[in-house]
Amino acid sequence: MQPCRLAATDLACRRGDRVLFRGVSFALDPGAALHLSGPNGVGKSSLIRILAGLLRPFAGSVAHEGEMALADERLALDGGLALGKALDFWARFDGSEAADRAIAALGLRDLFDVPVRYLSTGQRKRAVLARTMASGAPVWLLDEPLNGLDTASGAAVEALVAGHCAAGGIALIASHQAFALKGLARLELAQFVPKFVPELA
Amino acid sequence: MSRLALLLRRDLRHLLRGGHGRGGATLPLLFFLSVAMLFPFAVGPDAKLLARTGAGVIWVAALLAAILPLDRLVEPDIESGFFDQWALRGMAEEAVLSVRILAHWLSFGPPLMLAALPAAALLGLDAAQLRAVQLGLLAGTPGLAAIGVTIAALTAGLRGGAALGGLLTIPLAVPLLIFGAGSLQPGGEGGLALLAAASLAALAIAPFAGGAAVRALRE
Question: Which residues in chain A have Cβ-Cβ distances shorter than 8 Å to B81?
Fold first, then answer.
């Protein structure tokens, strides 16, 4: 696994005229996993998008080393294609060899001929996770990875993340659910919500 | 295969066959031919009148046909997160959109030039006029493709963006239409040169304007 690092310094996020959180700092070294928890709307997804470089932080900065892979609620797979072909587009794009393990562990082999738009909620989630984990990127940003998954698939995801971290990768999991992983650090985002929100005139 | 070639192949598959559950490249083509066919019915079988106005009609039909696929040029890929994934992989929006302009042109430019042959017969154009129309389409359709992708990126995410996109494209395409129709007049080489220049200007600006629009949508 290539060297990787992910560090946030004093991050703040503003959506509209509300500051969602401020003062968020952490640093993740190879093999580290962080559980980003908090109630709905606290800004977990926004923080993930800031870390991914897709959203500008209101304050603070992000430093990262190594490529990042993002799994959020957006599929980024062509609905009209069979799942196998849709995943193949990203496998070729990333030129990665890691695809097979994640696909097999998530039980997607049997769905390879099914057009993506016919997949169920849980199957879609598994497809997104397979696309992310197959990318070969050392830093995984997973937004609600267990949403809609059955118990067996959830356990498979937890095992894949554990394997990734054991191999020296970094995983950041944003979820309001529990995530079973040894040595998983926890960051409660609710404690970074500003207590007093002044009216913006 | 390089990343850009992969993108081009995917774009062409979508635009030619009609991915995202929408019509493919045949729809704009049939639309173009129907306009060319309806015009003689509407103005009557006056061969002289048709020969004088026919080439202009081909240009208007080409412009309208280029507007048809606007709503599936950029929006579906933003909606489903493709642009985010490309950004994460260090792929500039400008590069993605440049490939998309090429794919969009390939999916309607050459087919339109082919369809202009039967359209010219329907409108009674002679060989010299047909040659001028074909040269004009060759110079002008890349510009139409560039304007189309820019507008598609600017109107992505708006409610009713497809209708608005069509309306916004028309004024931007007016220079192409004027120079395109101008190149049909006797001694219209100047018009053809200006048409090519306008087309190149649109091609040069489009990826940057579109890229800024896609990034702005993330905020």
Answer: 72, 74-76
Interface confidence, given as ipTM, is: 0.92
A93 min Cα distance to partner chain B (Å): 6
Report which DSSP code applies to A156: H
The Cα A51–Cα A26 span in angstroms is: 11
CB B49 within 8 A of CB B43: yes
Write out the H or E segment, with its range, that includes residue A140.
strand A139-143
Distance, C-alpha A87 to centroid of its chain: 17
Give pLDDT tens digits for A115-153.
999 999 999 999 999 999 999 899 999 999 999 999 999
Burial class (CB in 10 A: 0-12, 13-18, 19+), A186: exposed
Confidence (pTM): 0.91
To the nearest 10°, the Cα dihedral for A42, A45, A46, A48?
130
Mutate to test the interface with A, among B85, B89, B96, B214 (most CBs of A within 10 A): B85
Judged by a CB distance cut-off of 8 A, whether residue A78 touches chain B is yes
What is the pLDDT averaged over residues B195-205? 95
| pLDDT for the residue numbered A196 | 64
B96 pLDDT band, cuts 50/70/90, is very high
Q: Is the pLDDT of residue A174 over 80?
A: yes
